[in-house]
Amino acid sequence: MTPDIDALRALDAIVTCGGFAGAARRLNRVQSAISYQVRKLEDQLGLMLLDRGGYRVQLTPAGEIMLIEARKVIAQAEHMEALARRFATGWEPRLTVIVDGILPLEPTLAALKLLAEERVPTRVQVKVEFLGGVQFRFDKDEADLMLVKDYLARPDLHAQPLPDVTCILCASADHPLAAAVSVDLTDLQEHVELSVQDSSDQGNDRHMFGGERVFYLSGFVAKKQALLMGLGFGWMPKYLVEEDLRCGRLRELPFVGGRRYRFTPQLVRRANRPLGLAGARLAELLRDKP
């Protein structure tokens, strides 16, 4: 048994408007049609929903409970209708975004917050990956956007630059390397290097130093914790360690080959698959972030 949504709306209108006449005016239908729909609904349910014996029509006890459920169904139906209208005008049902874990997540979250405030109907999924795993996941999941440090350019991909990110070579204040006046490659290779795990298993971090002892962590939060514990040394994005460097918990290592480097992240989409309205709006918000 599947109740007619129009019958549920008729029941709701009768109660809201105080009778059949008011419901008919509200729904722009004749009163007999409203009465027929509710009678048919009662027959389907096998319940009396309305007490018609008094001066004004009233809900029966069963009708009071069924109206609560009917209003839930009506609200869900109206939500579906609204979604259908928005999808028909270019809002995509789903949007998948892959974010490189070395990048600050705050701009992406701030953009998503604006999308939520604008009541964008698209379901957005954000996945964080590292190194070669970013493009690997972008291709494997057929994602719509990726925010990436390095990627393999292809004719089917279109990229736009995002604000630069600075990385700093550092270790804890009590690490042996932190006391050195100058550090060369041989010095670094004598100690444990900390890196993040490449989920593609390609191991293509070109900024690693080639030592025999490398510990791979699950992400930059874990890597920072390991640095603070004195477990090893490694590159960290500046935005994650500024306070620790300022307070002296971490030290910038005086590496002769350069203690800092900068890179320009890219916002990448598929050139052969236009973004929907949600994807285009998200890309716009990300590009406009200072």
UniProtKB/TrEMBL annotation:
<dbReference type="InterPro" id="IPR005119">
    <property type="entry name" value="LysR_subst-bd"/>
</dbReference>
<keyword id="KW-0805">Transcription regulation</keyword>
<dbReference type="InterPro" id="IPR036390">
    <property type="entry name" value="WH_DNA-bd_sf"/>
</dbReference>
<comment type="similarity">
    <text>Belongs to the LysR transcriptional regulatory family.</text>
</comment>
<dbReference type="Pfam" id="PF03466">
    <property type="entry name" value="LysR_substrate"/>
</dbReference>
<dbReference type="GO" id="GO:0003700">
    <property type="term" value="F:DNA-binding transcription factor activity"/>
</dbReference>
<dbReference type="Pfam" id="PF00126">
    <property type="entry name" value="HTH_1"/>
</dbReference>
<dbReference type="InterPro" id="IPR000847">
    <property type="entry name" value="LysR_HTH_N"/>
</dbReference>
<keyword id="KW-0238">DNA-binding</keyword>
<keyword id="KW-0804">Transcription</keyword>
<dbReference type="GO" id="GO:0000976">
    <property type="term" value="F:transcription cis-regulatory region binding"/>
</dbReference>
<protein>
    <submittedName>
        <fullName>LysR family transcriptional regulator</fullName>
    </submittedName>
</protein>
<dbReference type="InterPro" id="IPR036388">
    <property type="entry name" value="WH-like_DNA-bd_sf"/>
</dbReference>
<feature type="domain" description="HTH lysR-type">
    <location>
        <begin position="3"/>
        <end position="60"/>
    </location>
</feature>
